[in-house]
């Protein structure tokens, strides 16, 4: 924030420079103001705090500058995008949709194609026959089906290469710190031989009860990004299918994480709520409001309705061949807003900075590690280096190093 304030454009700067400046300034000011008011900067405590609770004047100026630019250049991309996110931040998501549709034409093959707020879209998805709903994705393959107790189940989903690099250390951490954990592991695009390796590894985790399922969409042949989008989004379809099967709380976790301590207190924190996740303040984009790194679903009527509609959203865009990175979080947000308008939203418990922990607190539960830095950490470990490439992640790196050494020794 200090650097941004120092770089403030002069009074005679162009409107476009002012627009770009306000786009960056507003989130940093929001996070700083939240901290000054004793709030978590990056985790909401109430959904009423979404978007810009403290810096509405800057938000309003951002929209006013966008309006002025559009009065002169109606096709200006950044101004259209600014108008769209300002409308949605004021609770006018239906009005924002036409601007997002223009953005989709300006930037084809982008997440803008996935932004749908039209009520009729969700009503059509809700009316669809469930047997036909997921008929276009590959069938589930049952690899291992142990009996689960009534305890919550940690749900992990990834392709085989992510299983090797990230899920194995995560599984070791779960096995080490959790009290007799129950895990469902879903592996995509693994061969029979690779699934046997998965079974063998999981069987060796004696403290854990692990179910394993698989599917073979074959999306790797389409390129890295289409494959990543499939793996990240379709896991919500599989989560819905397994919530129906198990009828027990399921806690989805990104596999590029480590469990730092027994998660039972985090599981208990959901109380009587239907769903738990982290929501983020000071973000412009509708796909960055709700965070999908840790999400808990209880087997309640409203939780089922919420997750089914998220899964149907993903399924519809998969059929259209239009899935983009961020669709999972976009679906979480858009479906929630639709259900809220209908008077039947799920009751949400918001996870704090100890549950979804990017600072690596001693009392944190899930130590998350998103972004490109995770690959440089793996490279450092494979090169035999003992220091973290990112000083902010020393504790995470040390824990990851311990688990990677365990994997090497076995």
- Mean pLDDT, to the nearest integer, reads 94
Helix content: 40-55%
Could you tell me the strand content as a percent range? 5-15%
User: What's the quaternary structure here?
Assistant: single chain
Structural class label: alpha/beta
- Order the strands across the largest sheet as they lie in space: 1-4-3-2-5-8-7-9
Please tell me what the overall shape is.
globular
Helix count, per DSSP? 15
Written as H for each helix and E for each strand, in order along the chain, the element string is HHHHHHHEEHEHEHEEHEEHHEEEHH
Distance between the termini: 47 Å
Produce the secondary structure layout:
Blueprint: H1 2-6, H2 15-36, H3 56-72, H4 77-89, H5 93-106, H6 119-127, H7 130-133, E1 141-144, E2 153-159, H8 160-177, E3 182-188, H9 192-203, E4 209-215, H10 224-246, E5 250-253, E6 257-259, H11 264-268, E7 275-279, E8 290-297, H12 301-319, H13 327-341, E9 348-350, E10 356-357, E11 366-368, H14 373-382, H15 394-409
Parallel strand pairs: 2-3, 2-5, 3-4, 7-9, 10-11
Antiparallel strand pairs: 1-4, 5-8, 6-11, 7-8
Helix pairs in contact: 2-3, 3-4, 4-5, 8-15, 10-12, 12-13
């Amino acid at each position: 924030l200090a650097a941004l304030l120092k770089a403030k454009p002069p009074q005679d700067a162009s409107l476009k420079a002012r627009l770009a400046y306000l786009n960056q300034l507003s989130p940093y000011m929001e996070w700083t103001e939240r901290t000054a008011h004793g709030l978590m900067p990056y985790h909401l405590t109430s959904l009423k705090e979404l978007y810009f609770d403290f810096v509405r004047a800057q938000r309003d100026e951002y929209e006013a500058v966008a309006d002025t630019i559009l009065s002169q250049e109606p096709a200006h991309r950044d101004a259209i995008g600014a108008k769209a996110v300002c409308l949605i931040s004021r609770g006018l998501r239906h009005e924002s949709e036409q601007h997002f549709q223009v953005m989709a034409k300006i930037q084809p093959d982008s997440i803008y194609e996935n932004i749908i707020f039209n009520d009729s879209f969700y009503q059509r998805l809700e009316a669809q026959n469930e047997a036909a709903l997921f008929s276009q994705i590959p069938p589930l393959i049952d690899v291992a089906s142990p009996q689960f107790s009534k305890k919550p189940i940690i749900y992990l989903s990834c392709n085989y290469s992510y299983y090797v690099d990230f899920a194995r250390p995560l599984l070791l951490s779960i096995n080490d710190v959790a009290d007799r954990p129950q895990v469902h592991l879903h592996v995509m695009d693994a061969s029979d031989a690779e699934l046997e390796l998965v079974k063998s590894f999981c069987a060796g985790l004696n403290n854990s009860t692990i179910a394993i399922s698989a599917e073979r969409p074959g999306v790797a042949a389409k390129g890295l990004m289409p494959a990543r989008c499939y793996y990240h989004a379709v896991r919500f379809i599989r989560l819905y299918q397994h919530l129906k099967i198990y009828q027990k709380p399921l806690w989805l976790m990104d596999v590029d994480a480590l469990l730092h301590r027994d998660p039972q207190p985090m599981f208990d924190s959901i109380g009587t709520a239907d769903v738990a996740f982290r929501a983020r303040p000071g973000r412009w984009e509708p796909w960055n409001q709700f965070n999908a790194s840790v999400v808990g679903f209880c087997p309640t009527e409203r939780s089922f309705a919420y997750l089914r509609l998220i899964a149907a959203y993903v399924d519809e865009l998969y059929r259209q061949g239009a899935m983009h990175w961020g669709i999972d979080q976009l679906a979480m947000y858009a479906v929630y807003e639709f259900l809220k308008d209908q008077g039947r939203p799920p009751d949400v418990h918001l996870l704090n900075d100890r549950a979804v922990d990017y600072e690596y607190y001693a009392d944190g539960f899930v130590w998350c590690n998103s972004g490109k830095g995770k690959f440089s950490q793996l490279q450092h470990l494979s090169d035999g280096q003992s220091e973290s490439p990112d000083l902010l992640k020393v504790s995470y790196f040390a824990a990851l190093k311990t688990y990677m050494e365990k994997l090497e020794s076995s």
